[in-house]
Specification:
This protein has 295 residues and is an alpha/beta fold. It contains nine helices and 13 strands. Helix content is 38%, strand content 17%. Strand 1, helix 1 and strand 2 form a beta-alpha-beta unit.
Amino acid sequence: MRVLVTGATGFIGHHVVRSLSDAGHHILGTSRSPTRTASLAGLDLCSYQMGEPLPRKVTEWMPEVVVHLAWEGIPDFSRQRCMRNVDDQTGFLRLALELPSVSRIVAAGSCSEYGAALGLSSGSAEVTPDDHLGRAKVSIHQILRTDCAEARVGLTWFRLFYVYGPGQRLESLVPSVLHQLASGNSPVVEQPDAARDFVFVSDVADAFEQAVRSTGVHDVIDLGSGLLRRVREVVDAVVAGSDMPSQPSGGRSRLPADGLWANLDAARDVLGWRPTTGLVEGIRLTRVGLSSSLA
């Protein structure tokens, strides 16, 4: 299939492009920085910024599926930046829906859409976000859901939980701990008792590829591990795979972890998807990727 991928050179985009390519799809990527192609050799890219008219290259290529990953300004999730993303992205998506060749849109949402909810996520389309990112994603989803229904175009809206893996920003948890260890320092992290659902990026990329091929009727799908882990557990797993003898400082809480984890029912029932990369293996692969990038 001909698949247009926005944000193709980003962290998740890089892995999605690889999964799509391995499955035999034809890919056209968009990026604000199309020169970032050292690790994406052979990828056909065009320069594009959300909010602009569609490039002629895109309209003439006639994509069958749009995989929408772009989000501008990371890690700036201020109200102003999020509102700008809502305006620019809904404008882009409406232009994409005008292309007669497009039969499905697969887009990246966020677990932030669930707001302060705890426990197993509801997986519901109706949610109550409590931060700017969550509200922005919900706004885009609501508009896109209506527009796709009117255009009779399929929609998959993935709510991504805490994705990690090779190529992630150094400020993120696993890369930051790995970087501290590589510098000979004991890792220092904030909120060690916070609990999150961590999912490896290659598993997420495989779900996007399966959604591209899907012809089923579906909308919201959670993508996570379906497990809740404290931040300190993840840090301990990173340290255990290194030569650093010391463990993160601070006493261990005996209280059960509070947090939100992904409801994998829709991913299983609709796509036949489940995560296959455990935390230890995911950290090993992230370490290998980080070592290669710093070499």
